[in-house]
Amino acid sequence: MIRASLAVVIREGAALLVRRSHRPDAGLWGFPGGKREPGETALDCAIRELFEETGLQATAGTPLGTLTLSRAGLLYELDAWLCIDAKGDAQAAYDAEEARWFDVQGVVAGKLLMSRDVDRLTLRAVHRLTAADR
Questions:
Q1: I need a labelling partner for 73 at 20 to 30 A (CA). Which of 24, 41, 57, 131 fits?
Q2: pTM
Q3: Domains of the chain by range and CATH?
Q4: Closest CA to 42 of 63, 56, 70, 22
Q5: Residues 63, 31: Cα–Cα separation, whole Å
Q6: Could you tell me if 46 and 84 are in contact, meaning their C-beta atoms sit under 8 angstroms apart?
Q7: Binned average pLDDT, 10 residues per bin, the chain of 134 residues
Q8: What are 24-28's contacts with CB under 8 Å, separation 24+?
């Protein structure tokens, strides 16, 4: 099993997505993320991947859940983290072809070619942020 983390960032009604340049999701929009390094926590992995792929810096995160996916004969366990304190201007780097902010409603409605469950995680993040504001 390949353990990985995703960094979910929502700002002013927009979700930060990157377009993948490598398999298994090449060409699809998804959250910054990648494989966990030995000894690295799931949150530390999400924060590192966010920085490597977009240049945004975060120091904290709230768990959004774990996804289990099977791709090309490999099993992936993806821990998703809502990075609420991410700072900086997003620029694609590393294995991201492009980094862009998309209106949350469009993401939830599935108006992009996206990796699996990006819409669900976006909705979950918005609910978490809304609950925190109350």
A1: 41
A2: 0.94
A3: 2-133 (3.90.79.10)
A4: 63
A5: 14
A6: no
A7: 97 96 88 97 98 96 94 91 94 90 96 94 95 75
A8: 24/71, 24/72, 24/74, 25/115, 27/113, 28/113, 28/114, 28/115
